[in-house]
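Write out the bound-state structure for adenosine monophosphate.
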Amino acid sequence: MYIVMLGAPGTGKGTIGKILSNDLDLVHISTGDIFREQINKGTELGKKIQGYIENGALVPDDVVIETVQTRLLEEDVSNGAILDGFPRTATQAEALREFLKQNKPGAKRVAIELDVPDDEIIERIVNRLICTNKSCGAIYNKKTKPPKQENVCDICGSELKRRDDDNKETVTKRLGIYHQNSKDLIDFYRKNNALYSIYPKNLDKAVEEIKNFLEEYKFNIVRK
Ligand code: AMP
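---
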């Protein structure tokens, strides 16, 4: 099963994607996380994409598509994946469909759209804190979900940090870019009758509703 998480930055794709990944036993693949790791390691790919990310611009389609295809061919993806932050353009969605058709024939595919008003998104993102321990990656919010101890992860004790691109100026730009592309993207999945939209006001409820949808959609999900 391949689940595409659609939604502007800050709508909860990462948080909900990680919960679903754990509950449904599917690998969580975040293009943003992959890119940030490449930048931190100083790889060729990292150098190529750093400017785009710092400016809140989209990384070119060909680079993103190749990165995701390479990742999807790794062994741990045999069961399917939760794709978080990909596709972001209709070209990427088209490339994903073709890739899955060729390489994972018969695999079920569905898109979940997290739809949150922009003013709420900005408020969420500027208060977002992320665990610096990559294998944990827990997400907090200074106002709505603060850690018990300031800047320390409740789960693993590592330092919490704000992402470099989580400032109001870059967020506004990223939202603008999302809205430019989202209509085509949403239409793409709507046409394929594989789109579920939800306003995730309450996290637990949203996860439950998504699982109900997946069951109705005849995905054989095993609830933990
Ligand atoms: P995210 O962590 O999903 O908010 O992504 C952080 C940044 O990585 C974005 O603002 C883009 O610069 C880049 N990025 C991540 N995924 C994609 C994608 N599918 N297409 C283009 N750029 C992307």
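---
The chain is about 50% helix and 15% strand.
The chain has a mean pLDDT of 92.
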